[in-house]
C-alpha cells in the first residue's frame, strides 16, 4: 500500500526529468500556498498557476463598464468583494464608490434579488463573473427574476469556461506536462469534460480535491501518468464522470457559448458563456467588452496566468506591486497567484 | 416603540430615554450624579483606551453589540496589564431602532461590565437618520502597576507563544448570520479578566500580550515580530480551531489566521514560565482550549512562519484588505 509518507518521500527525492504541472483553479493555488507543498517537492517538480481565477482573467473594459454603470443615476452595481479592488483602465469599483458611485458588496448572488425587491426605485446590475461552477447559480438567479417578474435587476456577465483556454495554454509552446484539473468546476461538468484535451495533448489531467493530501496525491499521479492522455478522477466523493446534470440543464436553458476576452490573452472562441438571445433583456450590456489595458506596462499578469513565468520573475513583484498597491489582477484577488506568492513568501 | 429623531433632541424625549434605558441599567454612585463629567478617584499609572463598535447584526449567537462594546475595551485595558476601572459609552442610534432592542443591549452591557469589574461612569446618546442601526463607542481607564512592562517589542529568542483558545468563532458567527448559514457556532466574545489576573497574580512575566481581534492571529504576530525584530515560528497542528469553524472556512475559502475573535488573546512568555502560564490560562474562564502554538526565533527579523501539517512551511503575512469569502 502506498502511504502518504511514501508519496512525500517520492516527491521530495524525485530526480527524473524536469516536470511542470499547472493547477487551473484559484482555490488550488490558495491551498498549495497555504499548505506549503512546494517546500517539500523536489526542485525538478514545478507547479504553475493557470487562468482559473475569475477576477484575474477579467478584462479592463468589463470593470470600466461596471464603473460607468455605478455612476449612472438610479443604478447600483452589486458585486463580490474581490471585484471591488480590481482597476479597469482608470478606476476600480472602490474608486467609483468613493466618487459617489453606487456599489454594494454581496456574498451571494441570491442576496441581490432580495435587495432589488426591497428597493424598487433603484436598478441593480450584478457583476456575474466566474467559471462553470458559478454559472448554475446565475441560472437560478435568472429563473427567479423571470418567475417573480423582477424588473430592476440585470446581469453584466463575464463568464468563462475552461476547455478552450486550457487548449490555448497548451498551444503556446508551454512547458506543461499535466494539469491538476479544477475540482469545483468538475463537480458541475464531470471529469469526462477534460478527456478530449487529455487525448489531444497527450498529457494527464487529474481531478483533485483541495486538501494538501489530495494535492500531493494528484502530483504523484501526474508523474506516474506522464505522457498519457488520460483523465484521473481523484475527487470521486464529489465528482462523477458526467457531473451534475441538473445544474448543466439549468445553464443550458439560459446561457449559450460565446467568444470571450481573457486578460492578457485576448479573445478565444467558445471560451465563455452569455445569455441566450431570448434573455438578453436581462443583460446590462455584456457584449463587446473586449478591450484590455495594463495599469503598469511592466505588469506580467498575462504571462503569470498562463504559467510562462512565476510571479517572483515579474520585475514589479514586491517592488511596486504588493497587495496594498496591486499593479495587476493576480495581486488583487485572494485567489490570484501573485497574491499568494506574496503573502506566503512562496519562492517557487 | 421605536427611536425617533426627537429622542436625540436633547430635550424631554432624550432625558426620558436616558432614564428609562441607560440610567436604570448602568446605575452607580458616580453615574447617578448625572453631571457633565464623572469624577473618579485615581492616583497611579493609568491605561486608557477607546474603541468603536459597528457590528451587524447587532444581536448574534453568543452576544450582542453591547456585550461586545464592553469586552473590547476591557480586553484592550487588560492586554496592557491594567485592572479595568471606569468606562464611558457613546451611542449613535439610527431612528427606527426598537427601544426594546436598546434595552436589551443596555442590559447586556450592564451585565458584562459587572462581570468585568468595570464601572460605567459617563455616557452620551445621539440619534441620526437611518434605519435601525446602533453604533457604540466605549472608552476605558484602568490602573497599572509600575512594575508591569508588557509590550509587543519585548519578545526574545527562545520565548514561547501561547494562544488562549480556538480561532475564528466570532468571525464565523457574524458571517454565518449575514449569509443566513445555519450552524451552532457562537461568538467567543468575553472579558478576559480572570485569565490575565491569574497570570499576573502568579508572577508570570508576560512579555507581549494582545487580544486577537480584527486582522486575526496573523496580523497580531506580525506586529510582535516587527516590533521585537524577531521571527515567530508556529506549528499548524497546535493551533486550536474547532471542527465546525474549520469546515466553515473550507467552504467559504477563509483562513483562520486572519479571522476576528473577541475573547481570545495571545501571550509571549519565557520558556521557563510557559508550562505554568499555559496551565493558568487553561484553568481560567474562557481558556480551556489554550495551547502553546510556537516560539520566538532569530531566523529572519520581522517574519512569522508556520510549519504546516504536511511538513511544508509558509510565511504568515498581515491581513491585506478584507477577509472575504471566495467567489468560485
TrEMBL record, chain A:
Keyword RNA-binding: no
BP GO annotations: protein maturation
InterPro entries the record matches: Hyd_form_HypD, HypD_1, HypD_2_sf
GO terms assigned for molecular function: 4 iron, 4 sulfur cluster binding; carbon monoxide binding; iron ion binding
Keywords: Iron, Metal-binding
Protein family membership: Belongs to the HypD family.
PANTHER family found in the cross-reference section: HYDROGENASE MATURATION FACTOR HYPD, HYDROGENASE PROTEIN ASSEMBLY PROTEIN HYPD
Record-given protein name: Hydrogenase formation protein HypD
Organism: Anaerosacchariphilus polymeriproducens
Source species taxonomy: Bacteria, Bacillati, Bacillota, Clostridia, Lachnospirales
Automatic annotation (TrEMBL), chain B:
Any single biological process term in GO: protein maturation
InterPro entries on file: HypE, PurM-like_C_dom, PurM-like_C_sf, PurM-like_N, PurM-like_N_sf
Residues of the PurM-like N-terminal domain: 35-144
Domain PurM-like C-terminal: 157-304
Pfam families from the UniProt entry: AIRS, AIRS_C
Family membership noted in the UniProt record: Belongs to the HypE family.
Protein name in UniProt: Hydrogenase expression/formation protein HypE
Name of encoding gene: hypE
Amino acid at each position: 500500500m502506498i502511504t502518504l509518507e511514501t508519496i512525500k518521500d517520492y516527491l521530495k527525492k524525485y530526480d527524473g526529468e524536469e516536470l511542470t504541472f499547472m493547477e487551473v483553479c484559484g482555490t488550488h493555488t490558495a491551498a498549495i500556498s497555504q499548505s506549503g507543498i512546494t517546500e517539500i517537492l523536489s526542485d525538478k517538480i514545478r507547479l504553475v498557476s493557470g487562468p482559473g481565477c475569475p477576477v484575474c482573467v477579467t478584462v479592463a473594459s468589463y470593470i470600466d463598464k461596471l464603473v460607468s454603470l455605478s455612476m449612472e443615476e438610479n443604478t447600483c452595481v452589486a458585486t463580490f468583494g474581490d471585484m471591488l479592488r480590481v482597476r479597469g483602465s482608470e478606476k476600480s469599483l472602490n474608486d467609483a464608490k468613493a466618487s459617489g458611485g453606487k456599489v454594494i458588496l454581496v456574498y451571494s448572488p441570491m442576496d441581490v434579488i432580495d435587495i432589488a425587491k426591497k428597493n424598487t426605485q433603484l436598478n441593480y446590475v450584478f457583476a456575474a463573473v466566474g467559471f462553470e461552477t458559478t454559472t448554475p447559480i446565475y441560472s437560478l438567479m435568472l429563473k427567479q427574476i423571470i418567475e417573480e417578474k423582477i424588473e430592476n435587476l440585470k446581469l453584466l456577465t463575464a463568464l468563462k469556461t475552461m476547455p478552450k483556454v486550457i487548449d490555448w495554454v497548451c498551444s503556446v509552446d508551454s512547458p506543461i506536462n499535466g494539469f491538476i484539473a479544477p475540482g469545483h468546476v468538475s463537480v458541475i461538468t464531470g471529469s469526462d469534460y477534460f478527456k478530449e484535451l487529455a487525448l489531444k495533448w497527450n498529457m494527464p489531467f487529474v481531478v483533485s480535491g483541495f486538501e494538501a493530501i489530495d494535492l500531493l496525491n494528484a502530483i504523484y499521479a501526474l508523474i506516474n501518468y506522464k505522457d498519457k492522455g488520460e483523465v484521473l478522477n481523484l475527487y470521486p466523493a464529489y465528482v462523477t464522470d458526467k457531473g451534475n446534470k441538473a445544474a448543466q440543464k439549468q445553464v443550458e436553458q439560459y446561457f449559450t457559448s460565446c467568444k470571450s476576452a481573457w486578460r492578457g490573452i485576448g479573445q478565444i472562441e467558445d471560451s465563455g458563456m452569455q445569455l441566450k438571445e431570448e434573455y438578453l433583456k436581462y443583460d446590462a450590456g455584456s457584449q463587446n467588452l473586449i478591450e484590455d489595458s495594463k495599469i503598469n506596462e511592466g505588469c506580467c499578469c498575462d504571462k503569470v496566468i498562463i504559467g510562462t513565468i512565476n510571479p517572483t520573475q515579474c520585475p514589479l513583484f514586491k517592488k511596486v506591486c504588493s497587495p496594498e498597491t496591486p499593479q495587476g489582477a493576480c495581486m488583487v484577488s485572494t485567489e490570484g497567484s501573485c497574491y499568494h506568492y506574496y503573502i506566503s513568501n512562496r519562492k517557487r | 416603540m421605536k427611536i425617533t429623531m426627537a429622542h436625540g433632541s436633547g430635550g424631554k424625549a432624550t432625558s426620558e430615554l436616558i432614564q428609562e434605558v441607560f440610567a436604570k441599567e448602568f446605575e452607580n454612585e458616580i453615574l447617578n450624579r448625572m453631571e457633565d463629567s464623572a469624577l473618579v478617584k485615581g492616583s497611579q499609572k493609568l491605561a486608557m483606551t477607546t474603541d468603536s463598535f459597528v457590528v451587524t447584526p447587532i444581536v448574534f449567537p453568543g452576544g450582542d453589540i453591547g456585550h461586545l462594546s464592553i469586552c473590547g475595551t476591557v480586553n484592550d485595558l487588560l492586554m496592557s496589564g491594567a485592572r479595568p476601572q471606569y468606562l464611558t459609552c457613546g451611542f449613535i442610534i439610527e431612528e427606527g431602532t426598537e427601544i426594546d432592542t436598546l434595552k436589551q443591549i443596555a442590559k447586556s452591557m450592564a451585565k458584562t461590565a459587572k462581570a468585568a469589574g468595570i464601572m460605567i461612569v459617563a455616557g452620551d446618546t445621539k440619534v441620526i437618520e437611518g434605519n435601525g442601526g446602533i453604533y457604540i463607542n466605549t472608552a476605558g481607564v484602568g490602573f497599572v502597576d509600575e512594575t508591569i512592562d508588557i509590550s509587543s517589542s519585548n519578545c526574545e529568542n527562545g520565548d514561547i507563544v501561547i494562544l488562549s483558545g480556538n480561532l475564528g468563532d466570532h468571525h464565523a458567527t457574524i458571517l454565518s448570520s449575514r449569509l443566513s448559514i445555519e450552524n451552532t457556532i457562537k461568538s467567543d466574545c468575553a472579558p478576559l479578566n480572570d485569565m490575565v489576573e491569574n497570570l499576573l497574580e502568579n508572577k508570570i512575566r508576560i512579555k507581549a500580550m494582545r487580544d486577537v481581534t480584527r486582522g486575526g492571529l496573523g496580523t497580531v504576530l506580525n506586529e510582535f515580530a516587527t516590533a521585537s525584530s524577531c521571527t515567530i515560528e508556529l506549528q499548524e497542528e497546535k493551533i486550536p480551531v474547532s471542527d465546525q469553524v474549520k469546515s466553515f472556512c473550507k467552504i467559504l475559502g477563509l483562513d483562520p489566521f486572519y479571522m476576528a475573535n473577541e475573547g481570545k488573546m495571545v501571550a509571549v512568555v519565557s520558556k521557563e514560565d510557559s508550562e505554568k502560564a499555559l496551565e493558568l490560562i487553561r484553568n481560567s474562564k474562557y481558556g480551556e482550549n489554550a495551547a502553546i502554538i510556537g516560539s520566538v526565533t532569530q531566523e529572519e527579523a520581522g517574519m512569522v512562519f508556520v510549519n504546516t501539517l504536511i511538513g511544508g512551511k509558509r510565511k504568515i503575512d498581515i491581513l491585506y484588505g478584507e477577509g472575504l469569502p471566495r467567489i468560485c
